[in-house]
Amino acid sequence: MVGRSRVIFILFAVVVVTLCQSSRQVSARLDGEVVVEIQNILDPSRADLQVQCLSGDDNLHNHIVEFGNTYNFTFENNVWDTTLFFCCFQWEKPDHVWLQGGPYNIYMAKRDQERCMHYCRWRVEEEDLYP
Ligand SMILES: *[C@@H]1O[C@H](CO)[C@@H](O)[C@H](O)[C@H]1NC(C)=O
């Protein structure tokens, strides 16, 4: 019984992941949509990165990004080119001290429409944030 429910759960998880991936790919092709990608390159601590991004309209809540992994979010620019997302980062160093960075302006329509267009990437380092 336990074995069967585990198999069903795994199948369910695969279906959900597949659905999420396909809907993400479809929506990423829509006109005007911007993908912001944030990668955790917290070397040498290789800590999990906690990311929270907000705009005037949206609170994307806290996300945990393992070392080397990325976190994406997508949105549509508003017609006035005033879209602004800012993000705060925190992580726990190996000595259990928490470090915080931000808020950083991660996406500003006027700055970024030409700089990175539909796909804006950031890499989060221990010392800094790199485009
Ligand atoms: C983030 O978006 C980019 C561009 O669409 C894609 O190449 C990458 O695989 C995405 N990463 C994740 C974790 O979804």
TrEMBL record:
Keywords: Secreted, Self-incompatibility, Signal
Membrane-spanning residues: none
Subcellular location: Secreted
Keyword flag Secreted: yes
An example Gene Ontology CC term for this record: extracellular region
One GO BP: rejection of self pollen
Signal peptide location: 1-28
UniProt xrefs under InterPro entries: Self-incomp_S1
Pfam families for the chain: Self-incomp_S1
Family to which this protein belongs: Belongs to the plant self-incompatibility (S1) protein family.
Annotated protein name in UniProt: S-protein homolog
Species per Swiss-Prot/TrEMBL record: Pyrus ussuriensis x Pyrus communis
Lineage: Eukaryota, Viridiplantae, Streptophyta, Embryophyta, Tracheophyta
